[in-house]
Input
Amino acid sequence: MAQNVFDFTVKDRRGNDVSLTEYKGKVLLIVNTATRCGFTPQYEELEALYKNYKDQGLEILDFPCNQFGNQAPENDEEIHSFCQMKYNTTFRQFSKIDVNGDNEAPLYTYLKSQKGGLLGKNIKWNFAKFLVDREGNVVERYGSSDTPEKIEAAIKKLL
Output
């Protein structure tokens, strides 16, 4: 049974295993993203947050997901190229995953078990966000319409 997010291993965009223990001591913002969504411009705000706070220990973990309206149909490399060209993203992007259902990533099963709350168990749409403290504890869950700018104060408190 997982004790915190550092107990998980995920796949990077090239299919390599990445142990989240690599992020021990960092504040994490974990986001399920899509390239063709009305919320896709949040990539710009996510990148701004990352640039402003990465030296203080913020990491943004980007998990593309195609479960909502087929809004991330590209493969992992195409998604990465799109994000770099359009939004100049420099934070880490992982392999496309499912965040709900029979094939959901174990990390997301855990995240949702920690913070369901008013948003319910399942992820409702692209750009849902989970804020994780330096010890790997899920502190808060935010919906798609909660912009990165709106949650900046909560991030600063953890840094």
